[in-house]
Design a protein that fits this description.
- With 120 residues, this protein is mostly beta strands.
- It has no helices and eleven strands.
- Strands 2, 4, 5, 6, 9, 10 and 11 form a seven-stranded mixed β-sheet that branches.
- The protein is elongated, with a radius of gyration of 14 Å.
């Protein structure tokens, strides 16, 4: 089993910044991909950004140039630096990890979600 602990959400004014963190722990042999998704009220959950074990990243077009995803493999932690935040970035942000367990089984886990609200 794997546990994900997210932190860093909150209320911020338009143009402001926030940094989300997600730490994974448990029966992990390797974390293959770490990512952030978000879900706004009445909308489907969407990929915001992802990063693989080699450090290759991908971003939703709506956040390119404003958000940066990074990971610390020694700490099993993924970060999302969010700059120039807009009201349309308001959503619950979820961490997601794709891992290989200690028993060499591929598994996928979601965090509990953290609220990000961008409003003046």
């Amino acid at each position: 089993q794997v546990q994900l602990v997210e932190s860093g959400g909150g209320l911020v004014q338009p143009g402001g910044s926030l940094r989300l963190s997600c730490a994974a722990s448990g029966s992990i042999f390797r974390i293959n991909v770490m990512g952030w998704y978000r879900q706004a009220p009445g909308k489907q959950r969407e990929l915001v950004a992802g990063i693989d074990i080699a450090g290759s990243t991908n971003y939703a077009d709506s956040v390119k140039g404003r958000f940066t995803i990074s990971r610390d493999n020694a700490k099993n932690t993924v970060y999302l630096q969010m700059n120039s935040l807009k009201p349309e970035d308001t959503a619950v942000y979820f961490c997601n990890v794709d891992i290989t367990s200690r028993w060499y089984v591929r598994e996928n886990y979601w965090g509990q979600g953290t609220q990000v609200t961008v409003s003046s």
